[in-house]
Amino acid sequence: MKQYLVYDIGGTFIKYALMNEESQMIEQGKVPSPLENMEGLLDALAGVAEKFKGQFEGAAVSMPGRIDTEKGIAYTGGAFHFIRDAEMGRLIEERLGVPATIGNDAKCAANAEAWNGALSDVSNGCVIVLGTGTGGAIMLDHKIWMGTTGGAGELSHLVTNLDAFSAAGGDMQKMLGSIWAGNTSATGLIVKYAARKGLNPREIDGIKLFEAYDAGDEDAKAALEEFGRITAAGIYSIQSVLDLERYAIGGGISARPEVTEIIREKVEAVFTQFPGVPFLKPEIVTCRYGNDANLIGALKFHLDRIH
Q1: Residue-level pLDDT at 132
Q2: pLDDT at residue 264 above 90?
Q3: What is the band of 291 on the pLDDT scale with cuts at 50, 70, 90?
Q4: Positive or negative torsion for Cα 250, 253, 255, 258
Q5: How far is CA 307 from CA 5, 70, 91, 300, in A?
Q6: By three-state DSSP, how is residue 208 classified?
Q7: Which of 131, 182, 155 has its CA nearest to residue 12?
Q8: What does pTM read for this prediction?
């Protein structure tokens, strides 16, 4: 069976796996992410490839930024600020000596769910990744919708407060507070809890928040309720445009069943309060794949390309 080298480039680590065509991982690991320049990044990828020399015939890459998967161009690179309008696909092919495919990390996660995960049995759906911001991707007719320049599905920028957003000007904090990234994300949940406790959000992480929740902390419960309500309002907005069948919730905090449950409960409530809504009330489920989703989805993009 053919094998492929798959990378998930993140701001701290580059995760990698040697995988076969059925997405089975033969070996995996991680190395630190070089953030200084392109040469350092390509060297890191090549260093991993050397370990598996002769064992793979293609490379698939998940990475942050606005990515044109078809053309292999990374218009931006997230934490990799040196990436601007870069022909990443070609550069990686030249360094590794095999065909290479690149994809946006959130779209890779959604592609994994579309392939054989939580969205595999529906035609139209959405993946919402709750992290530092709000990753996301839209699946239409069982394919990840890229948009005109690879920018479709950037849910972090969905506006939650039109008035505040329009008045934010160049104030990034005000803008952040009026979009999904600052509200419907793990960070947003922590900020809501910290505000109720009068604490600095930097003193809290998801683990501490859910420890408080498990201990019966009413502020933790109220923060999760608020988080679910705002998330449901955003899903309602997306649904009014796309009329999707299912939303799959991912990201680190989705490991807690309460997260998907509160979103599902609030979606039920918002659709109930408006009789005669002219679009479908969607299913809310948890993503099947966790930390491996980006690797699996990147592989699927590559297999689709070569086939």
Answers
A1: 85
A2: yes
A3: confident
A4: negative
A5: 17, 13, 22, 10
A6: helix
A7: 131
A8: 0.92
Predicted confidence at residue 275, as pLDDT, reads 80
Q: Within its chain, how far is the Cα of 228 from the centroid? A: 18
Amino acid identity at 139 = M
Catalogue the E-assigned strands of the chain.
3-9, 13-20, 25-32, 59-63, 67-68, 73-74, 100-104, 125-130, 134-140, 143-144, 246-250, 283-286
pLDDT digits (tens, 9 = 90+) for 108-139: 999 999 999 999 999 999 999 998 889 899 99
**CB contact at 8 A, 84 and 35:** no
The bridge status of strand 246-250 relative to strand 125-130 is parallel
Q: Give the pair of three-digit tokens for residue 123.
A: 């035609």
Mutual angle of helices 186-197 and 206-214, in 10-degree steps: 60
End-to-end CA distance of the chain: 15
pLDDT (0 to 100) of residue 98: 98
Amino acid at 263: I
The DSSP code for 251 is S
Using CA atoms, how far apart are residues 98 and 122, in angstroms rounded to an integer?
34
Secondary structure of residue 15 in the 3-state scheme: strand
CB 238 within 8 A of CB 244: yes
Please check whether residue 228 is in contact with residue 266, taking contact to mean a CB–CB distance below 8 angstroms.
yes
Tell me the pLDDT tens digit for each residue of 83-102.
999 999 999 999 999 999 99
Where does the pLDDT of residue 48 fall: very low under 50, low under 70, confident under 90, or very high at 90 and above? very high
Residue 165's SS3 state is helix
